[in-house]
# Entry
Amino acid sequence: MSDDIKALWQKQETEYAPMPLEEIRKRAKEFHSRTLWHNAIGYVANVLVALGFGYYIWAIPIPLVRIGSALIVIAAFYVSWQMQKRIAPAPLPAEASAATWIDYHRHELMRQRDAALDTWKWVLAPLIPGLVLVLWGMWSVTTRSPLGVWVFDLTVILCVAVFALGYALTRWRARKWQRKIDELGR
Amino acid sequence: MTGANQDESYRLAVSEHGAALGRLARAYEADAELRRDLLQDIHIGLWRSFAGFNGQCSMRTWVYRVAHNIATSHVLRRKRAAKQVSLDVLEELPDAENLEESTGEKQKLEVLMAMIQTLSHPDRQVILLYLEDLDAAAISEIIGLKPGAVATKIHRIKAVLARRFRERSAP
# Structure
């Protein structure tokens, strides 16, 4: 019976159509172009962030807010740079792509897990110093009326909640990848 | 490996295993458009990989390793992957799920494909290589599991297939 199923499997029609070598080479180069395009998008994002917070530096005459905004601009550039470095697609070395499935799969899962764990370090943490200074600056000029204090407190709570949620999400994703790695070892 | 050798190795690999790569892509990706992308990625990855091929293993082992690795990355990238089950779950399916002998080949193939697409790793890789007529030693070399573990999986796969297709497994 096994042979029948194998024969059935092997004689099935597929959409397979050989790609000419020229086409393969062209597409391999396009992969490289995709990386460059990815970098270009990151560069545009950098410029937008710089313009936005640059405006705050120029428009808000509070020294702490200005310094904090400048730090956020720097952090945004750093985050974008890290994103390009870590997320942009890159072709695998020939040897790595032909590793045994277990080795390759474990490596891929560990890469995903580490990326999730590191997100905290290179996405959230760099923004904290600037954000703290901006909040501190805002506090220094907040009217001490109940409404002013309430609005400020709410802003701080929202910031902390967003960061805590981001942190929890990265830990949850890392645990998910770790479970898959553990399953491989069984 | 020189560019000419790389091209020649790729040509040879495709002439010998091209159809199997098409079947592999079909088993990994149900969506036709994404399947075309996957197959394209496999061919590009394979051509690129031959730059580092110096006979470390047989060409067949090399081709299947590259193809399964790229397909696995494809599955990992999918945001909403279908729920996957292990062989244990398939073994527990009630007889009502079985197919009659009279069922047409097309339907049988559809059921087989659906079963493979729901299998978790590395059961999926093992069954696909088994269906391509590779023995336990060859599958072990591609997957990286011990030959004994692969043999056990093959034995279980045979039993599941026999039950699902209402026929007796070979002794």
